[in-house]
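Risk register update: the risk of archive-format incompatibility is retired. Evidence:
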Amino acid sequence: MITYRQITEDDFLQYRADILRLIKLNADNHITRRALNNFRRLRPEKLSREGNVIWTAWDGELLVGMIFCERYGNRTSFSVVRRSHRSQGIAKALLRRAVNTMGRFYAEVAADNPASLKVLFGMGMVAYDVFPRRGKWILRVRNGFDVNKE
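Archived output:
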C-alpha cells in the first residue's frame, strides 16, 4: 500500500539523500539542470514558506515518488516516480496533495514528456502558453480544477 508524507523543514535533511537518489535513478532526463540545482540548494527553512512543498510516496520503507514545488511551481516544479511503480496513479496523487497544500500550481513541461502531460491534463490543468527552449516546445500549465475531485 502506498502512503504519502509531506516533507517539512524539520525532516528535510533526513530524507534529502534518498530523494536525490530517486531523482538520479528515475528522472529519465526530464528534469532541467536548473530545477535540480534549485532542489540541491534548498534550505530546510524554505519549506515553511507558502508555495514551497515536497510530498513523497512510500511503499513500506521504500521511497517510490516525490514532487517538489517552489514558489507555487513558478520557480521550480518536478515530480519523479520509481520506474517499478509507474502507472499506479502515484504522480497524480502527489500532484493533488501538492496543489491542496499550496492552493495553486504552475509548471513548465516539455511537449516530449507524455507521462507528465498525461498527469497534468488528466487532472484538468490548463495550458496557457507555449514556447521553444533549446529545440523543444515547452508548455506552461496551471491548475484550473477542483483539487478535491478524484
